[in-house]
Design goal:
- 2 copies of one chain form a homodimer.
- Chain A starts with 11 loop residues before the first helix and ends with a strand.
- Chain A is built from 13 helices and 26 strands.
- Chain A is 34% helix and 28% strand.
- In chain A, a hairpin with a 6-residue loop joins β1 and β2.
- An 11-stranded mixed sheet of chain A has the order 3-8-9-15-12-11-10-23-26-22-21, sandwiched between helices. In chain A, strands 17-16-18-19-20 form a 5-stranded mixed sheet, sandwiched between helices. In chain A, strands 4-7-5-6 form a 4-stranded antiparallel sheet, with no helix packed on it.
- Chain A is globular.
- In chain A, α2 crosses α5.
- By secondary structure, chain A is an alpha+beta fold.
- Chain A has 3 domains: 211 residues, BirA Bifunctional Protein, domain 2; 107 residues, Anticodon-binding domain (Rossmann fold, 3-Layer(aba) Sandwich); 72 residues, Translation Initiation Factor IF3, CATH 3.30.110.
- Chains A and B meet through β2, α2, β3, β4 and β5 of A and β2, α2, β3, β4 and β5 of B.
Amino acid sequence: MAKEVTSRAENYSQWYNDLVVKADLAEQSAVRGCMVIKPYGYAIWEKMQSVLDGMFKKTGVQNAYFPLFIPKSFFSREAEHVAGFAKECAVVTHHRLMNDPDGKGVVVDPSARLEEELIVRPTSETIIWSTYKNWIKSWRDLPILCNQWCNVVRWEMRTRLFLRTAEFLWQEGHTAHATAQETEAKAHEMVQVYADFVRNCMALPVIVGHKSPNERFAGALDTLTIEAMMQDGKALQAGTSHFLGQNFAKSFDVQFTDKEGKLQYVWATSWGVSTRLMGALIMAHGDDNGLVLPPALAPIQVVLVPIYKTDEERSAVLAEMENLKKSFEALGHSVKIDDRDNLRPGFKFAEWELKGVPVRIAMGPRDLQNGTAEVHRRDTLEKASAPVEGLDRYVHELLDDIQKNIYEKAARFRETNIRKCDDWEEFKTEIQKGGFLLCHWDGTPETEEKIKEETKATIRCIPIDSCVCEEEGTCVYSGRPSRRRVIFARAY
Amino acid sequence: MAKEVTSRAENYSQWYNDLVVKADLAEQSAVRGCMVIKPYGYAIWEKMQSVLDGMFKKTGVQNAYFPLFIPKSFFSREAEHVAGFAKECAVVTHHRLMNDPDGKGVVVDPSARLEEELIVRPTSETIIWSTYKNWIKSWRDLPILCNQWCNVVRWEMRTRLFLRTAEFLWQEGHTAHATAQETEAKAHEMVQVYADFVRNCMALPVIVGHKSPNERFAGALDTLTIEAMMQDGKALQAGTSHFLGQNFAKSFDVQFTDKEGKLQYVWATSWGVSTRLMGALIMAHGDDNGLVLPPALAPIQVVLVPIYKTDEERSAVLAEMENLKKSFEALGHSVKIDDRDNLRPGFKFAEWELKGVPVRIAMGPRDLQNGTAEVHRRDTLEKASAPVEGLDRYVHELLDDIQKNIYEKAARFRETNIRKCDDWEEFKTEIQKGGFLLCHWDGTPETEEKIKEETKATIRCIPIDSCVCEEEGTCVYSGRPSRRRVIFARAY
């Protein structure tokens, strides 16, 4: 075996940490709470970026770049925003180091204190809206549809690789519009882009819905979210899209002249997904042997492992594998031949399983003679012998099938772990088991808060387009009337 | 006319600033020294990134991501590096804001002082080599070939958009090797990748050479550079690749067991290009009408401007343009139809010239009748009538021709402004005129320093593979013997 991974049953949390580190995705850095994303992990993130970026651009969004630093005073402008964001963040106070007068390395130069402190962006609404003020004069300047891929910093006390780190990578879209209606439509459009991406590329079902007012983004009138279920039954918020109303435009005095010549405040959305998606990908699909990557995001889709004893056998097998590699690549697949000669096939098998490569092909001298190869699929761990003739099409279709199967497995798991609950005692028992509970809620923040205190469960979302939820009833906690069910769960 | 641009002759520096701002590439932000890269500018940078990233990957390089912050103590580890880098940088001292007790917005929470200050990375050698220590045990772990695309901060006092900003975007490659020879070869390979990119994509000739010891990167044994000539005759360093020897491995104690079982320090390179390339692109090719973008990097390669009086004419022309657009896109070109109905064609022409779009096509009702279009090329400002039949191939070849012509024009300009100089009095006169001077130099830092003091000229590089430079002579300043010429110029 390659590196040992804790099993999910034994310790789900340790299993996750093992996968991240042992599959070479990321590791802790020398800086508290900041991670190093290793090449294999970064390659998955790059694939996510590339697909999402293309999807954004199809909706007319353009990329841009705004400063890393935000003047401290900007945080005071939008009252709700400052309450939600300005607390735990990295503050730059000085702009110079100097040699320690005592000769012990370097110290901060006390004379280089900034007049106004700068905050490393935890999110960029404020700096972007202070910029949009210069870009927007008339209705002809609208809409503005910008996105940026960047790093942000939130000084989290308890961090976990990918799920919650002080620095993380993300994209943040910020759009500006002339009407409330167009703005709300954009917020909905973007959350659906996220849902499509997570379903089709990450092979992970999500529920699209509104956040309750308690869980809204600081400064938003409405927050839309996609919620996914992990294998321990906990929810993971995978992306959010905010309808910000005119709050930021008012804070930064961004007005436009409409077609009638009247001055109006501009309407805003913002929306983002982050390297947290990596955490969702790992936790949703991995098994006790390691990662299970959907082919759409796998940096290596097919790995070829030669079996041989003699140098002659090695050359013969590798020659055939080179041909196969070319034929797979011609169909658009990424392929690696693992020709390391200091490791046994069994070790390599375990390593590529750990790394979640969707298809593994082994060939030895006997396969050469028979014109066959052994094809192993990562999702089901099934092996089959297949003829080399036509193996490119076979693998092409197998990858398709794996993508679908991973999605369906996750969808079945969710189906099994989502249930209606109408009784408070039952709620308290059921929520221990994990999964999503579909419950009536009286719509008050007080009830939500009490449920959270007693059970650690929060309202993950008020689903959109779910006929299951559209029914009248009474609140599972207060017994007051309710017009629709919402989703409760414990969450990452 | 669209927005007025200062002419180069009148004020070259103002011309540059005008182009950056009026062509919507970038602007100053609310944060001193930090820029906002606007969508049109960012689209050019994205094209640069995409081409370079592909070139890096072909050499076996993989992307990764390392923390934004570097513990202050890391800067004391490599003595030369700290001298060169640790001075002007952004220092994070606190991790929390709080509401001002006086009710005036937010203030830094004095109780949230970091134990050790964090520096926003000005470059990442130290944090990366502290990480590599965990990755490298044996010769089998080498080489490591990592690159990251990220933001860095250097607290520059005088900033200029793209050329010198406090925060900028770049890529930094960091490789680790077992032998000095392999490492030097990698440093040379990467500087040649940069040279290829700048010549072929940016259409800009460069001279590849070594930096003199004075101008080397802090901590490097050798710095390779590509130097380009701007239209005012000044040099611009467009990319560098460093042979770092074992300096960082020794500072961070990174050793490997070689094939003979002996412990050895690891060898290093690093190499980078930044958004400064945007400055080079603008200054090398722009003219008094605006940007001149090489087709390989133009976000819009072809713009179509309809000419019409009536609605009927408008629909007929736009219908034909949609067909043309599709045919150009089928050949891989990016195309925009400028159908804004509140602007005159002349205004649009000027705007797209300002933005440097390589090819502009205008069509009116008469063109429709004749089956022709008016094709305007940005580089020479020439207009020609061309048949609509076969216009796709015509434009395809025209774009090729424009790419070549822009390069050749820049090459001719450089040829005219590069000359040998063997007399100190002549040097002082000639250097005023701009351009590169090929001079003998005695090889001492003292002479280099004195020449800089007296003329503001520095040694841009000691060219590699230049037979013009390979001759014996005497130093233009000291008269001492010299074995080769080097390039002197004033620089950005």
